[in-house]
Design a protein that fits this description.
The complex is a heterodimer of chains A (223) and B (188).
Chain A (H helix, E strand, L loop, with lengths): L1 H18 L34 E3 H17 L4 H26 L9 H17 L5 E4 L6 E6 L3 H4 L14 H13 L4 E7 L9 E7 L1 H10 L1
Antiparallel strand pairs in A: 2-3, 3-5, 4-5
Helix pairs in contact in A: 3-6
Chain B lengths: L1 H15 L2 E3 H19 L2 H27 L7 H17 L4 E3 L7 E6 L12 H5 L7 H12 L2 E9 L8 E10 L10
The chains are: A alpha+beta (223), B alpha+beta (188).
């Protein structure tokens, strides 16, 4: 059935190419207009090939800084920038969740809030950032707020924030990742990042997770 | 000569480089490309933007490279190619592309990547393949930027890409000219 689908997609491309007039630029690539498509179906590729592989922190830092610079040019204001970073992190989070859950074959699906947060605090942080998050706390003021803190987040490590945008937090990227994972596991929430420096850890970032009402109601029913 | 670069690259990777999960890197790059595609809509523009971003990265990456590897000058362009593949790529991406198809005058070479950490988990839509979209085009920009900072003006571009259904992923690097050191205006 998959071969039929790919054959159909090939046909559709060829008919599209045939109906196009040969505009300048296309004629030179006429031979490559019919994509060969000998790649394996993405759903059949092995997922464990890249498990545990590493790249250097510098590569990631350069990439992240370019991402920041690109985003900065297209937004107005800090809130917008944080929102965009959140969006970028969101895409990473949905895919990371898929990978993690698939590899964590033994565990059951998390249904309790605390279990979910613990999963993020340990497994997610360990896989993505190489260490567990440094603390998991429940807010004393609000029922629906929890905080996960990281003393030395790699995303912010090489970023220096100028004074006039001092409220910016590049942890918004991490917040996006967490938000995607929470949403993906059916715990809709609003996730933001805040810098809370303490002695010895000036870059300490706290991810604030504000759960939606329905999650709290569901949690009540479990008691 | 190639052997000593390989050992140097391995040694730097093992001892002098802090590492993170490659999948985070892959997914972040994918997120960036997805954002660019959404913003620009035209794949040729996305290609250009990726190359430009790569250029910015390359101009700073070269300093990191030189600081960590403390290598001297390369004797010729072919040695530059070996250095890039065995030490440069190894140090940042933990891969060693092969240097092939060196031209007769030694001013061009190809880097053949058998694994590309930027392009894991990726499938290109048919539209992207038809419009000659090079997913990892940021690498070409990095090469151009880095080499320009060491006085070489080069042209780096993708020839084939496994994401498009080709057998290999190949980047062609052409030396255009060596740049002269310029004294900044205002100094003697």
């Amino acid at each position: 059935m998959s071969s039929n689908a790919s054959a159909a997609s090939r046909l559709s491309v060829m008919s599209m190419a045939a109906s196009l007039p040969s505009v300048g630029g296309y004629s030179s690539t006429a031979s490559s207009i019919y994509p060969k498509r000998t790649t394996t179906n993405i759903l059949e590729r092995p997922l464990n090939k890249t498990r545990g592989t590493e790249v250097s922190v510098n590569a990631f830092a350069f990439l992240f800084s370019e991402m920041l610079q690109y985003t900065q040019k297209r937004v107005h204001g800090i809130q917008d920038l944080e929102r965009k970073l959140n969006e970028l992190g969101y895409r990473v989070g949905t895919r990371a969740l898929d990978l993690l859950v698939w590899r964590d074959k033994n565990s059951k699906r998390e249904t309790r809030v605390l279990g979910m947060l613990y999963f993020i605090h340990t497994t997610v942080w360990k896989t993505l950032f190489g260490k567990q998050a440094d603390s998991l706390e429940k807010s004393t003021e609000n029922e629906d707020e929890y905080m996960i803190s990281d003393n030395d987040p790699i995303v912010s490590k090489f970023i220096s924030v100028p004074k006039d945008v001092s409220q910016l937090n590049c942890g918004a990227f991490m917040a996006g990742v967490v938000e995607a994972i929470m949403d993906g596991c059916q715990f809709p929430s609003r996730v933001t990042a805040h810098t809370v420096p303490i002695d010895g850890f000036p870059l300490r970032t706290t991810i604030l997770i504000k759960l939606d009402k329905e999650v709290l109601e569901r949690e009540e029913q479990f008691r | 000569m190639a052997r000593q670069y390989k050992t140097l690259g391995d040694e730097i990777w093992k001892n002098r480089v802090e590492k993170i999960n490659a999948e985070l890197f892959t997914l972040t790059y994918g997120s960036i490309v997805a954002q660019l595609v959404k913003d620009y809509e035209d794949f040729a523009d996305v290609n250009k933007q990726l190359e430009k971003m790569g250029y910015n990265i390359g101009t700073r990456l070269i300093e990191d490279f030189l600081a960590r590897s403390s290598v001297g000058r390369c004797q010729d362009f072919r040695e530059t190619g070996e250095m890039i593949s065995k030490v440069g790529f190894k140090m940042f991406l933990n891969i060693t592309p092969a240097v092939t198809n060196i031209s007769a005058d030694g001013r061009e070479f190809s880097l053949v990547l058998d694994e590309n950490p930027l392009a894991e988990f990726v499938e290109l839509p048919d539209q992207a393949v038809v419009e000659e979209f090079w997913y990892s085009n940021i690498l070409c920009g990095v090469l151009r930027g880095a080499l320009e900072m060491v006085q070489m003006q080069v042209d780096a571009f993708f020839v084939t890409d496994m994401l498009r259904g080709d057998d290999t992923t190949e980047i062609r690097v052409k030396l255009i000219r060596y740049l002269e050191e310029e004294v900044p205006a205002g100094e003697d």
